[in-house]
Amino acid sequence: MANRKSSFAIGEHYHIYNRGVDKRIIFSDAYDIRRFFKSMIEFNTVGPIGSLYENSFLQLGSETPKLSERLVNIIAYCLNPNHFHLILEQLEDNGISEFMKRLSGGYTNYFNQKNKRNGSLFQGVFKDVHIDSNEHLLHASAYVNLNDRVHQLGSETPKLVESMSSWGEYTNKEIKGVCEKEIILGQFGNSNEYEKFALSSLESIIKRKVEMKDFDELLFELE
Q1: DSSP designation for 20
Q2: Domain 13-220 sits in which CATH superfamily?
Q3: What pLDDT does residue 209 have?
Q4: Which of 2, 49, 152, 158 counts the most CB atoms within 10 A of its CB?
Q5: E strands, the chain, in order
Q6: Complete edge-to-edge strand list for the sheet that includes strand 127-131
Q7: How many CB atoms lie within 10 A of CB 8?
Q8: Strand, coil or helix: what is 216?
Q9: Residue 101's CB: how many other CB atoms inside 10 A?
């Protein structure tokens, strides 16, 4: 793996993202999406891990590891057909790097075996942006939670697969999910207030997309 230009600090938050090599599709069906999502849970542990592929993915438990056992806190996520976004808080030294190594490597192995292909699936080393203020964190959460809407996926061409995001976790208290949401939702009176904030932020993001080059393209240039 290439050397990173940045390091990660315990207790800090980072926007992590990557896309398929040559902008290729990385989630071709609903099972791929669920596989990656399940990997986010199973690989987020300080202990050794087995192979999801070898251990029968469908039989593995779905409990989120206890806080003392996790490498990272997942704050928000969005899995789109050809790229993904995560907001992570590092809990252990080298936690984000180890988590992403497991997640990217494990999913690539699964995808390559499933599709009888070889080689890299993702566009090099994952990209990261340090979230250096509370305002940045709030707006980043809206951007990630609503990332499928940012791209207005399906508005012009059919989607191969539905995106999957943590938006439901933030707006429906019945959904337990995997995210540590209190750092975001604790700043609002209730989830409805956060929903209004996020949707308002989305309007600004989409306007910026129209006025400037694609926002994700800007992100992928930040290396």
Answers
A1: B
A2: Transposase IS200-like (3.30.70.1290)
A3: 65
A4: 49
A5: 13-19, 72-79, 83-90, 127-131, 164-165
A6: 127-131, 13-19, 83-90, 72-79, 164-165
A7: 22
A8: helix
A9: 15
